[in-house]
Every structure is written in structure tokens, then in C-alpha cells.
Specification:
The chain has ten helices and eight strands. The chain is α/β, with parallel strands linked by helices. It folds into two domains: 220 residues, Spore Coat Polysaccharide Biosynthesis Protein SpsA, Chain A; 71 residues. An eight-stranded mixed β-sheet has the order 7-5-6-4-1-2-3-8, sandwiched between helices. Strand 1, helix 1 and strand 2 form a beta-alpha-beta unit. Bound molecules: uridine-5'-diphosphate and magnesium ion.
């Protein structure tokens, strides 16, 4: 382990023309300082991953690439692939370009960028994965806060032990990236993947600032998709639940059947139970559709994985 590792800071960016100038200046300043202090190698760099933006994001990345003589680098996706794949591409390309450790940060610098060096220090003491944990969720709306907490709780119940409030602010070693690259799945949920990999982990606590420019690039729908991917790619519990519910329902209907027979032939006091039938049919078909839905989720995952398509297409690269 060298005491001056080559650090790569990767920034997934989707329509971030408003944030990039400030973010580049701020990060370049910090990196310059840490290089001078001998904390990181002089070959350390910043890598933007333009996730198919349709504003001036790529033009700006080109401009900073020229001005910085390659300290600011970039990858341009052929279309929007989503933040998880942008991060993955940044990790793999940085590893290829010789980085020893790689950290991800959002283009809006909501995560405290001064802490980057603390992540590096943890890396130097032997941690292979250093996860950033948010101190609180005060900058999030009430709804986002609640759904996020609910999601982490649910994941833990389903047997995926991701730390609560761990965002994608994370440093990993090049060794971890090489291993990660062997996992070929298309539906990525990086938090779960890094949990799955093992390796020595450490944690850094940080504060979240309000987004400096522009608005969130995540829609409620894309967050919902991410959450579903997280569940279906790491937990079989929902499938098992389907079996369990099916078993329970059969047992209940068997008992109802027996009581109906008793009513009809022995006690002979049966009333034409129209309401009961309607309620029962509604309830059972509801459960059936729900179970079908859960199975379909996994089937959909399988369908996508089986095609084994490339996870992203890099259209241009500056390095
Ligand atoms: N992002 C991306 N592709 C997308 C959506 C978002 O690369 O399809 C990037 C975005 O540019 C930002 C990071 O992911 O750097 C986090 O997004 P954002 O700040 O909008 O999310 P929030 O902070 O609201 O969760
Ligand atoms: Mg943000």
C-alpha cells in the first residue's frame, strides 16, 4: 500500500451544466492541495461520466479536459443509462487508467467534498471499501426521507444488510473494482453489490448540503426502479413469501370447505352466503395478482440478465 495513492474522483453527471463549473473548480483546488501536501499521488485525476446528457455537460467536460491538461477526464455514454451504470463505468475506466483508489461523488457536491481525504486515509490504513454514511436526512423532503428509511428497513428484513443512510458516496480500491467487474449483472444495485463482495470495510460520516444548482435528476419513478432492483437482485424472500401465502390460502380455503360441508349436511343451517363468496373471491384474486406480480419482477430480471447485453456504451472518451 503506497502512502501516496493515485486517487480518481468520479462524478456521474446527467444534465449538470449548472453544477460542473463550480464542482470542477472546487475539486481541482482540493486535489491540488492534497497533491502538494503529499497525501495523494501527482497523477490523481477527476473523471466525469456524462450519462447521456442533452445540455452542455459534455462541452464543459471537454473544456476542462483541455484546460487541466488531462487532470479532468471524461467518458460520454451514448445515451442515458442511469446513475448506477455511470458509476460502474467510472470505476472500471479509472481502474484501467491506473487509479489505486476511486471515490464517487455527486455532481451537485451535496456530499461534503472535504471528507474525500478522510476516505483516502482510511484506505491507506487498509480498508478496501470505505462507505459514506449521511448524518441525517434534513435536506430531503418528508416523503423521500420516509420512503428511504422504509426501504433500508425492508432490505434488512429481506436479508440484505446494507447500512442505513449509506449513499453512493464511497471509496473503493482498484482491487475491489477488478472483482466487481466479474459480476456481470445488468441490473445494478451497487450498495448491495459492495455488501456482497466482502473485503475490509470502513465508514465515514458526513453532512449533506442542499443541492447547489439545478434540481434532482432522480424522478420518484427512477428511485422506485432502483429500490425494486435492489430487492429483486439480492433477495429471494419475496418469492418464498409467495409460496408461503399460497400455502396459507390453500389451508384456509380447505377449512372453509370443510365448514361448508358441515353446514350443509350436518347442521343444515346454511344461508346463501353471497357476501362471503364475493369477499373471498376478491381477496383471493387480489393475492393471486400480487403474487403473479412478484414472480413477474424476478422473471423480468432474468429476462434482462439472460440477454447479457453490454451495460453501457461509451461513445467518447477523454483520458
Ligand atoms: N445522475 C446520473 N444519471 C441519471 C440520474 C442522475 O448520472 O440518470 C447523477 C446526477 O447527475 C448526480 C447524481 O447522479 O451527479 C445524483 O443525482 P441527484 O443529485 O440528482 O440525486 P439526489 O441527490 O436528488 O438523490
Ligand atoms: Mg444530489
Amino acid at each position: 500500500m503506497t502512502s501516496t495513492p493515485i486517487l480518481s474522483v468520479i462524478i456521474p453527471s446527467y444534465n449538470e451544466e449548472e453544477s460542473i463549473p463550480t464542482t470542477t473548480n472546487r475539486l481541482s483546488e482540493l486535489i491540488k492541495k492534497w497533491k502538494e501536501e503529499g497525501k495523494i499521488s501527482g497523477s490523481s485525476f477527476i473523471m466525469y461520466v456524462d450519462d447521456g446528457s442533452d445540455d452542455k455537460t459534455w462541452e464543459l467536460i471537454e473544456k476542462y479536459y483541455k484546460e487541466s491538461q488531462g487532470e479532468v477526464r471524461g467518458i460520454k455514454f451514448s445515451r442515458n443509462y442511469g446513475n448506477q451504470r455511470a458509476i460502474l463505468a467510472g470505476l472500471c475506466e479509472s481502474e484501467k487508467q491506473g487509479a489505486d483508489c476511486i471515490i464517487t461523488i455527486d455532481a451537485d457536491l451535496q456530499q461534503d467534498e472535504n471528507k474525500i481525504i478522510d476516505f483516502v486515509e482510511k484506505y491507506k490504513t487498509g480498508a478496501q471499501i470505505v462507505c459514506g454514511i449521511r448524518n441525517d436526512r434534513n435536506t430531503d423532503s418528508f416523503l423521500k426521507k420516509m420512503t428511504a428509511i422504509g426501504f433500508y428497513k425492508l432490505m434488512n428484513i429481506l436479508g440484505v444488510n446494507i447500512k442505513i443512510n449509506h449513499s453512493d458516496y464511497r471509496l473503493v480500491s482498484s482491487e475491489v473494482v477488478r472483482v466487481l467487474n466479474k459480476f456481470r449483472e445488468t441490473n445494478l444495485f451497487l450498495r448491495g453489490m459492495f455488501n456482497e463482495l466482502g473485503f475490509k470495510k470502513d465508514y465515514i460520516y458526513f453532512d449533506v448540503k442542499p443541492r447547489n444548482k439545478g434540481k434532482s435528476k432522480y424522478t420518484p419513478f427512477s428511485l422506485f426502479t432502483l429500490a425494486l432492483n435492489g430487492i429483486t437482485s439480492f433477495s429471494l424472500v419475496p418469492l418464498r413469501m409467495v409460496t408461503f401465502i399460497g400455502f396459507l390460502m390453500s389451508l384456509v380455503s380447505f377449512l372453509i370447505g370443510i365448514s361448508a360441508i358441515i353446514d350443509k349436511y350436518i347442521t343444515k343451517n346454511f344461508v346463501p352466503g353471497w357476501t362471503t363468496i364475493v369477499v373471498a373471491i376478491g381477496f383471493v384474486s387480489g393475492i393471486q395478482i400480487l403474487c403473479l406480480g412478484i414472480i413477474a419482477e424476478y422473471l423480468g430480471q432474468l429476462f434482462q440478465e439472460v440477454k447479457d447485453r453490454p451495460r453501457y456504451i461509451i461513445e467518447k472518451q477523454l483520458s
